[in-house]
Design a protein that fits this description.
Strand content: 15-25%
Helix content: 25-40%
Shape: globular
Order of helices and strands: EHHEHHEEEH
Number of helices: 5
Radius of gyration: 14 Å
Distance between the termini: 27 Å
Structural class: alpha+beta
């Protein structure tokens, strides 16, 4: 398991390229596809991503901080949305749970081959954020 709190580190994850591209597209889409705005929002609102790896099992998640365990369980029980990220070799689930009133969020990414219960999160439709700053983010430059 990996916890990524800096958006710029997403591209360093050891993921299939198709999944990495789809992940980036999903993460920046709420901000009108603007990478700079996404980075700023992640920093300002303490957004983060939890990556469950194929080697993770439910019992190994108990070694994580209690806070991380809480967020994983929250996303299993009540995700805002869940989408499938396709890859030729392995499909991944991406789930989001909004964790602050300001719109900060926790994402969970797990391969469907994961032996954790998190891989059983049901797919749900994507919902727009209720925070107008998050849905109407202004972007003057895109380096994507």
């Amino acid at each position: 398991m990996k916890v990524i709190k800096n958006f710029n580190l997403i591209n360093e994850l050891a993921l299939p390229e198709q999944v990495k591209t789809a992940l980036n597209n999903e993460l920046i889409s709420p901000f009108n596809g603007c990478l700079n705005t996404t980075v700023d929002i992640w920093s300002e609102y303490d957004a983060f991503l939890i990556l469950l790896e194929e080697s993770d099992v439910d019992s190994s998640l108990f070694d994580a901080d209690e806070e991380i365990q809480y967020f994983i369980q929250r996303m299993i029980d009540n995700p805002e949305f869940v989408v499938l990220l396709n890859d030729d070799a392995c499909h991944y689930l991406l789930a989001l749970s909004v964790i602050t009133d300001a719109g900060g969020g926790c994402y969970l990414l797990t391969p469907l081959t994961s032996l954790t219960s998190a891989s059983s999160v049901e797919e749900r439709p994507v919902h727009q954020s209720r925070n107008p700053r998050l849905t109407n983010a202004y972007c003057t430059e895109t380096s994507w």
